[in-house]
Structure prediction request, 263 residues.
Amino acid sequence: MKKHLQLLAAYAVQFIKVRFAYRADFLISTGASVLATVFAFGFLLVLFQKVPQLAGWKFEEVLFLYGFSLIPFGLFNVVSLNLYNFGNDFIIEGKFDRVLLRPVASLHQVIFEVFRIESLHEVVVGLLAVWLASSRLRLAWGPLEFLLLAFFALCGGIIYVSIFLMLTCVSFWVEDRVGVHPPVWNLIAFGRYPLSIYSGFVQFLLSWIIPFGFATFYPSVRLLGRAEFRLYAWLVPVVAAAFFTLALALWNRGVRNYASTGS
Prediction:
């Protein structure tokens, strides 16, 4: 563990040096991402100008939910780049052969080879939205709430990583440059709104099949102090641990199944 943490720090330092060597590219990429986030919040403002509540949720509560959802999503985005590119860069192009020759866990190398550090703005914006919504709702925050916020955000990030890692593992059996990520990626937006506005099927899908609800909605319910679905919040670490364990098992199975490109 100590060795891998040291390697992680070394990976991060070197990548940040390289990234900041091209400051204009970094600033443009960050600016575009910030604008996309701002437009998303703008949609909330427009929506609540038309309706006073959304399935019993006030604007400030949805703002809190949306803001919280950005925190685990931003953490996930920092390390997610190679998960999307795995099929093309590592399998089809043969880069995974080099990974297997190193005396370091293959998954560690793949995930922490590159970082999307501009995505940290999502964490910052999410925290600001949570703070603003909490202030307007006059929520009483103590040490426990701050610890739960950090804990739930970490669990949410693990859930995101686990889901997309399982999708990445499909590349071990099906060689496809694009992969199967895009359809599931589009479902992330559903978890940024109250699950109670959706049909029972969608609620089941986002809770037990692709559990984005456990990454965003159920933790927000607990932090907001709402009565509905409150007990589900305590299942968040269980779901995170279960899906991460399943993702690791699938990854190890895929590595054993991997056949070199021979190039």
